[in-house]
Each structure stands twice: as structure tokens, then as C-alpha cells.
Design goal:
Elements (H helix, E strand, L loop, with lengths): L5 E3 L9 H11 L12 H7 L4 H15 L3 H35 L3 E6 L2 E6 L8 E5 L7 E13 L1 H4 L5 E2 L8 E2 L4 E13 L9 H4 L9 H30 L4 H15 L4 H18 L2 E3 L2 H7 L4 E4 L11 E6 L4 E4 L10 E3 L2 E3 L5 H12 L4 E5 L2 E5 L2 H12 L10 E5 L7 E7 L5 E7 L1 H5 L2 E6 L2 E4 L2 H16 L3 E9 L10 E10 L6 H10 L3 E4 L5 H10 L6 E4 H6 L2 H7 L4 E4 L3 H13 L4 E5 L5 H6 L2 E5 L5 H6 L2 E3 L4 H41 L8 H19 L22 H27 L3 H23 L6 H4 L5 H19 L1 H7 L6 H31 L9
Parallel strand pairs: 10-24, 10-27, 20-23, 25-26, 27-28, 28-29
Antiparallel strand pairs: 1-5, 2-3, 2-4, 4-8, 5-6, 5-7, 5-8, 9-29, 11-12, 11-23, 12-13, 13-14, 15-16, 17-18, 18-19, 19-22, 20-21, 22-23
The protein binds adenosine-5'-triphosphate.
Main location: membrane
InterPro entries: ATPase_P-typ_cation-transptr_C, ATPase_P-typ_cation-transptr_N, ATPase_P-typ_cyto_dom_N, ATPase_P-typ_P_site, ATPase_P-typ_TM_dom_sf, ATPase_P-typ_transduc_dom_A_sf, ATPase_P-type_domA, HAD-like_sf
Organism: Leisingera caerulea
Length: 874
């Protein structure tokens, strides 16, 4: 155990003053590295012209030019340019949104300044600063260890060596480097180099960058677009060959082939998906959830189980001691939070350290065996440190106990979630040294052989142990977090965690967060299970679960879990279950077992040892406030407010976004289907070209792209959290989707073809303009069918998506301009339409507006009658 004890230089360390730090900063600069350059606007703009489709268009433009079709060349050129500009604007917005997410992950550091601990941005560190390093922290600068307790540093990022290295003051092992990670223990270290001067100049790329890796959805859609592209090329070449064989005009056939390929490829798709996910991620941040990978946004919508810890996520993590129990006295404590304004009372009378020696010993342990401290800031009190410890320090103030001198602690065995207790060796006032311990009561009790009473210590027999356990259970049963405290004489200079005297129990309240109960209800009605996995005691966990409205569950402790076979665990996880007194390693087993049942698991974690489970989970969730750097780095989602309710909101957001992607993919495909059907049938019956290539480009890129982006901004559907999570492999289109696409495509294709043939007698340009305009209007009208895949528009509200209404106004306006404005007329080969052609278009559009609406309404009422919910099975 000696290796986990504190070693120190014995200096009284106060750190720099704020003025000294500022002076040093002027000399050495900020503790940051020159940022990796993000792609500049020109790069992003040029990137728009590198895709396959644009290359085809450029080739087409060149051919059109050589054939002498100058208007077409210009139109194609303009469409390429417009597409480039639209793509640029979207991608730039996405980039900027992601960039601001990245900057939100900037690291922090705990330093000693002006003699007290402060949490500052890591970039403000200067050489000479004293930093406090805790387990799970990424070391913010190069430094020399001055004091350490069980410090072990994972230097794999620097050296590739995966076994953590012990570090201690003095000698070579005292150096720690920026970018490496504290695997265990705690230390005070003096910064020697910052920013670019550190031996490891890569902080920027390591501090939790937001992943730009493509998401499944993007990959899946990219593949779809490519397949459609190749199919289009093949069909277009076949048609070109056929036309040539039949002796038709080369230029006309070439343009037909080109139009067809353009019509088949949903050009806008990849851009729309990226922008939807990136804007979605930005929307989630406003809800306090920071997606570190776009993938998370997508997977969240499919989450079926949330494994959550208790302290700080379900509860406030604002602890207050309300009760102190000793073998012969029970004390009540008043006051709230970390304000020492309350008092300790025994039997109705105020008491304190001066009046009661047993109480004094308890208060001393709480004040000394700790890293927390209280400071007065103006008219209120601030606490630095862990809330559990802060509560015990506050208790010491309330009981008027003497504060320990600053250098009284000689050595320490730090707290860890594995050991669940902490011990220190202190110089006692009488001259000798003593050990003070606090921790989970059963972990403290097992190292005690005596118990303290008002009449002095007495041997800890079965009766005493039973009394302590009964008191512990009674407090835990009320939902209190219970900490046991003990003390003992030291043997030499090492901490012997044995033969101690049990002093008493402190009961801490940590109230549930008020917003959690409704969030749990929402999760449950959305078919998502909530499993609590906590390090706290079973009774406390059960009591809090009850207060939060979680269903009665079988409680399994970490030890019981270890004794279980995989099959047993799997069986257990079929029912309601709650895990208590777990160690971080247990989370990994629980995630694996759930995943084996094909669940999509969101798992929370904040400590250094939670990282493997966070990585393994489908969605690793870390805590923005309380979480360690290591946990944040391993996670997909960071809760900026550490709040369980935020996870549920983020799941809602994920569902909304996946739903919206499905909507606009289907929308874009149904529009393309209409164009392809009209073109194909028309070629087969030998008619003149129904749409010109430039007109198709106009429809697909100019009018549909804008509408699809607006569809991606559709609000969440009112019942989105009322049906079970989707399966992970749910296709974006699916059978019902395909049917809708075909049905709409057939109608719009045939209707525009009919209009074209109907008007063809008089004037080919007029007929084409009417068919082209009809197709655009049909496509705009069909968007209403996709606003929800199962709810009628009157149920989701006609005006709930103002972006869509704006997009429709703009694109229909653009189409009117295309028909009446001479420059666009010249480019798109259109002629003005008359009133009766508009009338015809108006009549033909009615079924598109009415039929889907009527069908959905019928289905809505039918499912309501069955008492079920209209679930999008498509
Ligand atoms: P959760 O896992 O829900 O966050 P937790 O905070 O109780 O719950 P751990 O941090 O693993 O989980 O703590 C386990 C137990 O260790 C606590 O229930 C408490 O009894 C004890 N404990 C917590 N913090 C300290 C500390 N600073 N010093 C000594 N013992 C502690």
C-alpha cells in the first residue's frame, strides 16, 4: 500500500498571485498551440465542384458548347455555379456550427492561485503555476510534481507505453507532460512549460475534437447516390445508343440522356444530410447536449436503454449533512448547501465540537480527510472540491470545530470508486500521528476493531456492528447517502488501514433533480428502459429510485453481479433491475450483456475508469461539469448540465432528425421518380423531349434542394416520444416508403406527361413550359405528404414549419420568374403560360394535396379506434 501514499516536499505551497500569473502570461503567452487550420472558404467552395455529378455537368456543358447550344451552355454553367454557392453556404454553416462545438470542449485546470484552489481555463496557465492533478485529468502543461498521492500517469499518448507510470516528487519520475493523462491518484505540480514550449506539442488535436467521421447515414446515402448515379449513366448511354440506332438527332439524344441521368440522381442529398445533422447538433447544444460525433445524433434516436449513474445525474449533487449518528447519540443538523449558517443539535439543544468529544472527532475527520474547502465570496459561500467532502467540511464549520493547519496531512491514500474510502495520516496535536478515514460505511467498518462512545472507545463486537448497520440501513432507506468515519493511532509513517476506531455515520441528503421524474416518464413512454447503476448503497439507490418514479426493481450489488454467469445476468436484464455498490468495471459487463440482447445502449460515466464502458456503449455519455477529461474523450455525447433529463431530450432530438432525414430522402426520390417516369414513357412513345436538361437541373438543384433543407428543419412530431425506438437497421426508405415514392412518381410523371401531350398540338415550347411548371408545382405540393410520415397535416399544424412555407414561396416565385422573366426564359427555353394552363395545373395538383391527407386521416382515426398509436412502420 506504500505506493499509494502521499509523498511531498513539505513546502507550504500557495501558488502564484493573480498579478504574477498575468505578468508571466505577458512573457510566455497563452498555454495553447497554434490551431490546426480549418478549411478556408475558398477550399470549401472549390470542394463543391469535385463531385461526380458536377464533373458530368461540366462535360455536358462543354459538349453543349461544341454543338453550338450556347444558351444551354450558359444555363448549365449557371446551375453549376448556383449549386456551388448553395453547397458552399450550407457546408460553411455546418463547418461553423461544428467549429463552435469544438471550442466548447476547451479544457480546464485546477490551480492554486493566491493561496486557494481555482478552476481556470487551461489556456490561462503559466510557468510557475501550481496545478492540482486528479485522476482522469489530461495534464494541461509540462510540470514537475511537488506532492503526490498514489499518482500514476498514462503516458501512452506520448510514448506509446500503455502501462501507467508511477510519479513522485524528486528525481526523474517527477516530470509530467502535457497531453498525458492521470490514471490514478492526485498531485500538486509546478508548471514548467506551456503551449508550444511543452515537450508534447499536440494538445489541440487531443482535447476532445468533434469527430468529422462520416456517419452511417451519410455512408448509406452516399452509397445510394452513387448507385443511382451509375444506373443513370447506364440508362442514359443505352438511350443514347438506341436513339442513334433509330436515326434520331445526336444533339437531342445526347441532351435526353443527360437529362435522364440528371433526373435520376438526387443531387441535393449528401449536402442536405450533412447540414441537417450539423444544424441538429447545434440545436442539441441549445438543449445542453453536446454531440462530439455527428454519429451520436443519429444513433441517439434509436437508443433503447439508458444506463445512468445516480449521483449528480439523477440527483442534484448538492450534498448537505442532515444527521450524524454515533453509538450513543443521534444529532440533527440544520441549514442547506455549503453555507455554514446551520447548527448541530442533540436532544433539541445546540451542540458543537467544544461540548462533545465524539462529535469533535467526527468533525475533525470530515475536515481533515478531504480535498474540499469553503470560501466566502461576497455574501455567499463557495465550495471547491467533491460535494460529498464539501458537505462534511460544512458540517465541521457548523459544529465550530478547529480547522486543521494547512500542512497537517503527511500522507494520503486517495479515494477511488473501487476502494470506496479515503485515508490520511496527520500530525496530531499531541505530537504523534494518527490515521483518519472516511468512506462507504461497510468499507470503513471492516477496518475497525473499536467503536467510540461518550465514555471512550469500546471494543466493536457483534452487537455494536449490528447497531451500526441498522442505523446505516435506516438512514439509507430514507434516501440519504451515508458516510462512515473512523480514526486510529498511526504506526510509524505509513497509513495502516486497520485496527481503527469507528466514530460514527454522517447522513447526507442529495435531492433528486426535479426535472428527472418527468424525463423518466417520457423515456418509459417512448419505450426506453432506464437502468440505474450507482456506486452508492443499495438502500439509498432504492429510495432515490422510488422518489424518481422508477418501477420497483430487483437490486443487484456489484459483488452479486460478479458472482453471476453471463446467462444469469442476461436473464436479470430482461426484467426491471437496479445496480448498486458497483465498481466502474461492472458497467462494461452490463453494456456487453445488453448489446448481446440487441439493445442500443446509452451509458453515462464520469470517472477515469468509466472510459472503456463509454467507448463500448452505442452512445457514451459523459458529464460536462463533473466529468473527467478521459471520460469526455471517450464519449459521444457530453451533457453540459450533467442532467439525466438532457439525455432524454437529446434522444427526442435524435428521433426528430432521423425522421426528418427519412422525410426529405423520400421527398427527393419521389420528385426524381416523377421526372424519370415522364421522360422514360415519353421516349418510349417517341414524343419530343418533355423536359430539357437545364429544366431538370433547375427542378432538382434549385427548387427541390431548398425545399428539402426546409423539410429537414421540420419540428418533432407531437407523438415522437410515444412509440418504441426504431431498430438500428431500419431502412431509410423501406417498402412502404418505396410504395409512396412510386405512387407519387407515377401520378406526377403521368399527369405532367398528359399535360405535355395535351398541349403539344399547338406549340411545343408552350407544352414543355406547362409540363415543366406542372412538375415543379407538383413537387412543391407533394412536400406536404412528407411533413410527417404518418400524421395528417392538420394534426401537426399547417404553420409549424415556417422555413418550409418560406421555401415554398421562394421556389414558386422562382418558377413564376422562370416562366415570365425574359432572361430566365432564354436560359430555360420557356414561354409565358396563360390562365387556362395554370387552371389545368391547379386541377391536377389537387389529388397530390388531398389523397395523402385523406389516407393519413383515415389511418389516424383507425389507429385511434384500436387504441393504438399511428406508428410509422414504413
Ligand atoms: P454514482 O455511481 O451514482 O455516481 P457514487 O458517487 O455514490 O454514485 P462512487 O463515486 O463510486 O459512486 O462512490 C461510492 C461510495 O464511496 C459512495 O456511496 C460513498 O459512500 C463513498 N464515497 C464517495 N465519495 C467519497 C469520498 N470523497 N471519500 C470517501 N468516500 C467517498
Amino acid at each position: 500500500m506504500a505506493d499509494t501514499e502521499q509523498q511531498g516536499s513539505g513546502l507550504a505551497l500557495t501558488g502564484l498571485t493573480q498579478q504574477e500569473a498575468e505578468a508571466a502570461r505577458r512573457t510566455y503567452g497563452w498555454n495553447e498551440l497554434p490551431r490546426a487550420k480549418r478549411a478556408g472558404p475558398l477550399r470549401v467552395f472549390l470542394r463543391q465542384f469535385s463531385n461526380f455529378l458536377v464533373v458530368i455537368l461540366i462535360v455536358a456543358g462543354i459538349i453543349a458548347f461544341t454543338l453550338g447550344e450556347y444558351a444551354d451552355t450558359l444555363a448549365i454553367g449557371l446551375v453549376i455555379a448556383l449549386n456551388g454557392v448553395l453547397g458552399f453556404v450550407q457546408e460553411w454553416r455546418a463547418e461553423t456550427a461544428l467549429e463552435s462545438l469544438r471550442s466548447m470542449l476547451s479544457p480546464q485546470a485546477l490551480v492554486l492561485r493566491d493561496g486557494r484552489e481555482r478552476l481556470i481555463a487551461a489556456r490561462e496557465l503559466v510557468p510557475g503555476d501550481l496545478v492540482i492533478l486528479e485522476a482522469g485529468a489530461r495534464i494541461p502543461a509540462d510540470a514537475i510534481v511537488q506532492e503526490a498521492a498514489g499518482l500514476r500517469v498514462d503516458e501512452s499518448a506520448l510514448t506509446g507505453e500503455s502501462v501507467p507510470i508511477d510519479k513522485a516528487p524528486g528525481a526523474e519520475a517527477a516530470e509530467v507532460h502535457a497531453g498525458t493523462v492521470v490514471a490514478a491518484g492526485r498531485a500538486l505540480a509546478e508548471v514548467t512549460a506551456t503551449g508550444a514550449q511543452t515537450s508534447f506539442g499536440k494538445i489541440a488535436s487531443l482535447t476532445g475534437s468533434v469527430g468529422l467521421k462520416k456517419t452511417n447515414l451519410q455512408v448509406q446515402l452516399g452509397r445510394l447516390a452513387r448507385q443511382l448515379g451509375f444506373a443513370a449513366l447506364a440508362i442514359a448511354s443505352a438511350i443514347l445508343a438506341l436513339g442513334l440506332y433509330m436515326g434520331r438527332d445526336v444533339a437531342e439524344m445526347f441532351m435526353t440522356g443527360l437529362s435522364l441521368s440528371v433526373a435520376m440522381v438526387p443531387e441535393g442529398l449528401p449536402a442536405v444530410v450533412t447540414i441537417t445533422l450539423a444544424l441538429g447538433a447545434a440545436a442539441m447544444v441549445r438543449q445542453q447536449a453536446l454531440a462530439r460525433r455527428l454519429q451520436a445524433v443519429e444513433t441517439l434516436g434509436a437508443a433503447s436503454v439508458i444506463c445512468t449513474d445516480k449521483t449528480g445525474t439523477l440527483t442534484e449533487n448538492k450534498m448537505t449533512v442532515t444527521q450524524v449518528w454515533t453509538l450513543d447519540r443521534v444529532y440533527q443538523v440544520t441549514g442547506t448547501g455549503y453555507d455554514p449558517a446551520g447548527h448541530i443539535a442533540y436532544d433539541g439543544a445546540v451542540t458543537g465540537a467544544k461540548e462533545d468529544a465524539v462529535l469533535a472527532a467526527i468533525l475533525e475527520a470530515g475536515l481533515t480527510c478531504t480535498h474540499a474547502s469553503l470560501h466566502r465570496e461576497g455574501d455567499h459561500w463557495e465550495m471547491t472540491g467533491a460535494p460529498t467532502e464539501g458537505a462534511l467540511v460544512t458540517l465541521g464549520y457548523k459544529g465550530w470545530a478547529d480547522l486543521p493547519p494547512p500542512d497537517s496531512v503527511l500522507a494520503e491514500i486517495p479515494f477511488s470508486s473501487e476502494r470506496k474510502r479515503m485515508s490520511v495520516l496527520v500530525r496530531s496535536r499531541s505530537g504523534g500521528a494518527k490515521v483518519l478515514t472516511k468512506g462507504a460505511p461497510e468499507q470503513v467498518l471492516r477496518i475497525c476493531s473499536q467503536v467510540m462512545t461518550q465514555d471512550g472507545p469500546r471494543s466493536l463486537g457483534a452487537g455494536e456492528a449490528a447497531a451500526i448497520t441498522a442505523a446505516y440501513e435506516a438512514m439509507a432507506g430514507e434516501g440519504l447517502r451515508v458516510i462512515g468515519l473512523a480514526a486510529g493511532a498511526a504506526r510509524g509513517e505509513v497509513i495502516a488501514e486497520e485496527d481503527l476506531t469507528f466514530l460514527g455515520l454522517a447522513g447526507l441528503i442529495d435531492p433528486p433533480r426535479p426535472e428527472v421524474r418527468p424525463a423518466i416518464d417520457a423515456a418509459r413512454s417512448a419505450g426506453i428502459r432506464v437502468i440505474m447503476i450507482t456506486g452508492d448503497s443499495p438502500l439509498t439507490a432504492q429510495a432515490i429510485a422510488g422518489q424518481l418514479g422508477l418501477p420497483p426493481a430487483r437490486t443487484v450489488t456489484g459483488d452479486e453481479l460478479e458472482a453471476l454467469e453471463d446467462a444469469g445476468l442476461s436473464q436479470l436484464l430482461q426484467g426491471e433491475v437496479l445496480f448498486a455498490r458497483t465498481r466502474p468495471a461492472h458497467k462494461m459487463r452490463i453494456v456487453s450483456a445488453l448489446q448481446a440482447q440487441h439493445q442500443i445502449v446509452a451509458m453515462t460515466g464520469d470517472g477515469v475508469n468509466d472510459a472503456p464502458a463509454l467507448k463500448k456503449a452505442d452512445i457514451g455519455v459523459s458529464m460536462g461539469v463533473r466529468g473527467t477529461d478521459v471520460a469526455k474523450d471517450a464519449s459521444d455525447l457530453v451533457l453540459l448540465d450533467d442532467n439525466f433529463a438532457t439525455i432524454v431530450r437529446a434522444i427526442g432530438e435524435g428521433r426528430r432528425q432521423f425522421g426528418n432525414v427519412r422525410k426529405f430522402v423520400r421527398y427527393l426520390l419521389s420528385s426524381n421518380a416523377g421526372e424519370v417516369i415522364a421522360l422514360l414513357i415519353n421516349i418510349l412513345i417517341g414524343g419530343p423531349l418533355i423536359f430539357l436538361a437545364t429544366q431538370i437541373l433547375w427542378m432538382n438543384l434549385v427548387t427541390d434542394g431548398v425545399t428539402a433543407v426546409a423539410l429537414g428543419l421540420e419540428k418533432g412530431e407531437p407523438d415522437q416520444m410515444e412509440h418504441p425506438p426504431r431498430r438500428k437497421d431500419t431502412p431509410i426508405v423501406g417498402k412502404a416508403g418505396l410504395l409512396t415514392i412510386l405512387a407519387l412518381g407515377l401520378y406526377t410523371g403521368l399527369a405532367s406527361l398528359w399535360l405535355f401531350l395535351h398541349l403539344l398540338d399547338g406549340n411545343e415550347d408552350l407544352a414543355r413550359t406547362a409540363a415543366f411548371t406542372a412538375m415543379v408545382i407538383f413537387e412543391k405540393a407533394s412536400v406536404f405528404a412528407f411533413r410527417s410520415l404518418h400524421l395528417p397535416c392538420w394534426r401537426i399544424g399547417f404553420f409549424t414549419n415556417p422555413f418550409l412555407l418560406a421555401a415554398l414561396t421562394v421556389t414558386i416565385g422562382a418558377q413564376v420568374a422562370a416562366v415570365y422573366w425574359p432572361p430566365l426564359q432564354a436560359l430555360l427555353h420557356t414561354v409565358p403560360l396563360q390562365g387556362d394552363q395554370w387552371m389545368l395545373i391547379g386541377l391536377l395538383v389537387l389529388p397530390i394535396l388531398l389523397v395523402p391527407e385523406i389516407l393519413k386521416t383515415l389511418r389516424y382515426f383507425a389507429s385511434r379506434r384500436q387504441g393504438g398509436r399511428a406508428v410509422a412502420q414504413a
